[in-house]
């Protein structure tokens, strides 16, 4: 008997089941790091990764060591988060090779008292990302030895982040160009260190132009009152000068600018009444 082949029922191949991959340890650690950065320190993770790609491979322990270093200098968490958000490169710095040398310089060379270190850093976080040998020490030498600053305080450590050749000297030279001697300029900046933080193009030039062309003042007044450059041109200098001009009065810079708006208006009224009395 010849056996006939049976009709075989061909079934479709059974679909294979592949379980969804479990997140790798590295992925979990990466997310943990970002969560810590955002929720614990209030730092924008996207900005941090964009401005400091090395942070992607940096372990959470390194971030915590930076946090611990800054906290040990008295910087509270709220300020610490703001600083790290401003300078994400700090996130991957080595505290011992990058940060502690800055603190050592401020404490032992600049002679900033330990309680004031926090104030210095909060006022100028950029100190933390400046090289001691190439930036901070040359600036200190210029300020103390060339200009004659008797000391740098937590209020003036901001000057240490300025390049001597690129920033400080050009500002000294510009002030000299207004008709001041080098000695006079040095005396001005020692009395008002904030002068060295102002922009030549955005501050000195427009205010000097208004001072000489519109106010017809003498450079001697700038020597007496260098704080002139610290007042807003549009917000205070022009409005007050124009009011005085409108009523035919003139005042020294100090009297015109140092008083509050209420005191200035009262002074103007009194001057008008005095004139009528005569």
UniProtKB/TrEMBL annotation:
Coiled coil feature spans: none
Keyword Kinase: no
Record-level Gene Ontology MF annotations: nucleic acid binding
Any one Pfam family match given in the protein's UniProt record, by short name: mTERF
Entry keyword set: Transcription, Transcription regulation, Transcription termination, Transit peptide
tRNA-binding in keyword set: no
GO terms for biological process, alphabetical: DNA-templated transcription termination
Highest taxon of source: Eukaryota
InterPro entries: MTERF, MTERF_sf
Family named by the database record: Belongs to the mTERF family.
Protein's name according to its UniProt entry: Transcription termination factor MTEF1, chloroplastic
UniProt organism field: Rubus argutus
Taxonomic placement: Eukaryota, Viridiplantae, Streptophyta, Embryophyta, Tracheophyta
């Amino acid at each position: 008997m010849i056996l006939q082949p049976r009709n075989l029922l061909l079934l479709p191949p059974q679909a294979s089941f592949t379980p969804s991959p479990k997140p790798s340890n590295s992925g979990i650690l990466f997310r943990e790091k970002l969560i810590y950065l955002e929720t614990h320190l209030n730092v924008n993770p996207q900005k941090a990764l964009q401005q400091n790609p090395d942070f992607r491979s940096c372990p959470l322990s390194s971030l915590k060591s930076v946090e611990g270093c800054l906290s040990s200098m008295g910087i509270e968490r709220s300020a610490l988060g703001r600083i790290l958000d401003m300078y994400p490169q700090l996130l991957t710095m080595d505290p011992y090779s990058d940060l502690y040398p800055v603190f050592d310089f401020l404490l032992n060379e600049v002679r900033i008292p330990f309680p004031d270190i926090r104030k210095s850093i909060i006022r100028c976080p950029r100190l933390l990302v400046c090289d001691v040998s190439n930036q901070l020490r040359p600036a200190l030498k210029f300020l103390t030895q060339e200009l004659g600053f008797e000391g740098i305080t937590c209020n003036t450590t901001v000057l240490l982040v300025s390049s001597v050749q690129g920033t400080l000297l050009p500002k000294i030279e510009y002030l000299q160009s207004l008709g001041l001697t080098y000695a006079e300029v040095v005396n001005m900046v020692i009395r008002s260190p904030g002068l060295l933080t102002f922009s030549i193009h955005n501050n000195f030039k427009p205010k000097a132009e208004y001072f000489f062309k519109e106010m017809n003042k003498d450079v001697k007044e700038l020597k007496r009152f260098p704080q002139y450059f610290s007042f807003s041109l549009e917000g205070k200098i022009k409005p007050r000068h124009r009011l005085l001009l409108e009523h035919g009065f003139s005042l020294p810079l100090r009297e015109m600018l140092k008083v509050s708006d209420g005191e200035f208006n009262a002074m103007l009224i009194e001057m008008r009444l005095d004139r009528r009395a005569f």
